Amino acid sequence: MQDPRIKEMAAVLVNYSTRVKKNDVVLISASGISSLPLVKEIYAQCVEKGAKYVEYDFSIPEINRHFFTSAGREQLAYFPQHKLDFMKQVTVYIGIGSAENSMVMAQVDQKNMIAYSKVVRPIIDWRVKNTRWVVTRFPTHGAAQDAGMSLDEYEDYLFSSCCIDWQAESQKQGKLKKLMDRTETVRITSSDTELTFSINGMKSIKCDGRLNIPDGEVFTAPVRDSVEGYITYNCPSIYQGKEFNDVRFEFSKGKIVKASAATSSMALNSILDTDDGARYIGEFAIGVNPKIRVPMRNILFDEKIFGSIHLTPGQSYEESDNGNRSAVHWDLVKILTDDGEIWFDNILVQKDGLFVHESLLDLNPGK
């Protein structure tokens, strides 16, 4: 018998996140076949809503790996125009990740992955700018293992963080957005972290279940050349099939001038050398999902950890655009629980992972 939470999650994606309506053209894009039960439920609900066409596709990471290990220069440079042509017809995009092995790309040549990401970037850019889109994850044994949980525990954790009252969370996030919109200078202090930067004039954006499920952050972007100081991230990050731990950046005039990681500094700097913008920050965000409290080695969850921040090298979002352009957008997470402070214009806003500013107290879990 199907888990009833799958239907509930599909309803969030269809009715709240993407607001599927009559005559929509919907693309459901799944990575891994384990998400089939969710794909079927989303498909059925989109048809019931009156979508005039619903396309679904499955990509298999192990097959994609073969492309990156075997493709020649001309193959890596080929632009799949047919995909862009179809994307221009799409009004709703729902992406689902359900990979069984997060390390399937670990031994793939990074240069090939970086090169191809640049080639297909126009498709992603069109989708982000012109569709009502959302991305999510479906529980698998592999993801549960990465999170250090049983599958049952992981399912409980995933569904509880996805199927919440997003309208109520949106109202709470509005208070943080309002405070960030009138803030000029941010300071973050924690273990091996002392950062300052300006967000003066930069718009802040609520992430309240419209684009990601789970969601739960408020983001902006620093003024591009304003970041000064250093930060050591304490949340593991998997990027381009490789795991990075203890990533440390030093900044001068906004640029990452020194970068290291526990066992992969060479790979780290290779990513940062993708283009000029990869060494500048495109996003600053505060995680506020009350149901996500520990790392799961999955960035869609980890960037929403309550009591965390992420400071992202690479491309800025159009909604809060500091002018930084890059093929890279790498969300790296610093958890401040029990060790850290966030200051807005010399006013303490959050301490040890809990909000202390009077206007933000109801954002704290259990409020």
The fraction of residues in strands falls at 25-35%
Chain-averaged pLDDT: 94
Structural class: alpha+beta
Helix content: 25-40%
Numbering strands along the chain, what is their spatial order in the largest sheet? 14-13-10-6-5-18-19-20
- Count of domains: 2
- Please provide the count of β strands: 20
Counted by DSSP, the helix tally is: 12
What is the CA-CA span between the terminal residues?
Answer: 35 Å
Dominant shape = globular
Question: Major beta sheet, specifics?
Answer: 8 strands, antiparallel
Radius of gyration: 20 Å
Low-confidence stretches: none
- As an assembly, this protein is single chain
Question: Please, could you describe this protein's structure?
Answer:
- The protein is an alpha+beta fold.
- It has two domains: 4-162, Thermophilic metalloprotease (M29) (Thermophilic metalloprotease-like); 166-363, no CATH class.
- 32% of the residues lie in helices and 26% in strands.
- The chain contains twelve helices and 20 strands.
- It has helices at 4-17, 36-49, 61-70, 73-77, 81-87, 110-119, 121-130, 141-147, 151-162, 166-181, 265-272, 299-302, and strands at 25-31, 53-59, 92-97, 132-137, 185-190, 193-198, 205-207, 212-213, 217-220, 228-232, 237-239, 242-244, 248-252, 255-260, 281-287, 308-313, 333-335, 341-344, 347-351, 354-355.
- The protein has an eight-stranded antiparallel beta sheet with strand order 14-13-10-6-5-18-19-20. The chain has a five-stranded parallel beta sheet with strand order 2-1-3-4-8, with helices on both faces.
- Helix 8 packs across helix 9 (151-162).
- It starts with a helix and ends in a 12-residue tail after the last strand.
- The mean pLDDT is 94.
